[in-house]
Amino acid sequence: MGVSKGDEVLVNEIKAGNTMAFEAMVLKYQPKLMSSLIAYTKSPDQAEELCQKTFIRVWQKIDSFRGDSALFSWIYRIGINMAKNDFASSFSKSSKITDSLDQNEHDVPQYLSPETELIAMESENKIMEFIQTLDTEIKTAFTLREIDGRTYDEIAQILQCPIGTVRSRIFRARQLILEFMNQENILNG
Amino acid sequence: MDKDLEKLSALYDGELSSKEIQESLAEMNADASLKETFHKFGLISALVQRHSEQKTPKVLFLKDYLSKINPLMSNFVTAAATVMITLIILYQFDEDRFQVDRDSSLQLSSALSSDQAKNQLLNADQNIMEHMIHIMQSNQSHNSQQVSKNWIPVGFSVNPNNPNQYSNGRNNLFFHLENKQLGIKKVKYFKANNNWIYLIPLQDGRLLTAYGDVPPSVADPMIQSIYQRK
């Protein structure tokens, strides 16, 4: 499975110098990367630093991304290599993020602190329980997208409904989950 | 407003046209609340997917499914389940020199905890995992291209009921050949219980997957002969 069509466009925009496209990529994949790095390092602070380093490296190396793998797989590999290097170098010296910046440095946007994301992890069961209460049609479309990674077209075929309906159901699921999170005061950081 | 957010949701899923993506990015650039919402879509995804990985390992469902359609294959699903949890990439062959590359960025140490190993593999090698599961799921050889007889290890003969299954009387070996390489540049192999899965990228852009209870001592000469004869 190579890069998805949407990510391919995003990458091309980044390669063309569209900084908003880079920011969108960070916004999209930062939570997943943070989650993986926290699991790997067991340290939210270290994970946050590695996350920033990773996206800086992604910005520097984006021209080398050929689309052979999914975009997140590529980002993840960079992140894990960073973590390994960080782990190895921690024996000899403590390093800071600024040590690795070069002339291609790029600011990585941060919207939610790792602490906030940890709160989100603690609220995971509550959110998952809420998802179970969603209308079946909405829940099915959302689950096929988020867990099975199906495209809208595939979901439309499975559910035998127009793509526009799939798009609105998935959005409705996200909208309801966000409303629930606001009600429960989750992620208001 | 909902229409904008619905478009943002489709942008998150990569389901907009190139032109729409550029428009949406410009809108995001001008509206911080859209950026925040976009990021929260990412948080929801991370939460749901993390929960899914923890609570619903799909390989368990796969095992149930496969045991119904082909009991023989269920042995390999047991292997796959093990792979999903504790897979250790032992080492890689260099495509040209066949030397052991112990510095591979994907090499995992057995010292890693199972959680770490699982996390790495579920993410870093997701494509590879899905490929292996897909092949096991495909059951028969109908979706595999025909493999060259020159690739078959000495002493192995074809199963008359399955042209891609070979046996030497003690060991079984399945082949699957298709037009993709998953970004694999070197031969990789995986061990799970008594089974081995070999991913062999061919120079013509195809990927040969071989799996069975065939250890590297048997597979190594097979792999080298495949490269020599390509």
What does the secondary structure layout of this molecule look like, with pairings?
The complex is a heterodimer of chains A (about 190) and B (about 230).
Chain A: H1 5-15, H2 19-41, H3 44-61, H4 71-89, H5 114-122, H6 124-132, H7 136-146, H8 152-159, H9 163-183
Helix pairs in contact in A: 1-2, 2-3, 2-4, 3-4, 7-9, 8-9
Chain B: H1 2-12, H2 18-30, H3 32-55, H4 58-69, H5 71-86, E1 89-93, E2 100-101, H6 114-124, H7 126-137, E3 157-159, E4 162-167, E5 172-178, E6 188-192, E7 195-201, E8 207-212, H8 216-229
Antiparallel strand pairs in B: 1-2, 1-6, 3-4, 4-5, 5-8, 6-7, 7-8
Description:
The complex is a heterodimer of chains A (189) and B (230). Chain A has nine helices and no strands. Chain A has 189 residues and is mainly alpha-helical. Chain A folds into two domains: 5-96, RNA polymerase sigma factor, region 2, helix turn helix motif (Rna Polymerase Sigma Factor, Chain: A, Orthogonal Bundle); 123-183, Arc Repressor Mutant, subunit A (Orthogonal Bundle), CATH 1.10.10.10. Chain A starts with a helix and ends in a 6-residue tail after the last helix. Residues 91-106 of chain A have low confidence and may be disordered. Chain B has 230 residues and is α+β, with helices and mostly antiparallel strands. Chain B folds into two domains: 2-54; 57-229, Phosphorylase Kinase, domain 1, CATH 3.30.200. Chain B contains eight helices and eight strands, in the order αααααββααββββββα. Chains A and B meet through helix 1, helix 2, helix 4, helix 5 and helix 6 of A and helix 1, helix 2, helix 3, helix 6 and helix 7 of B.
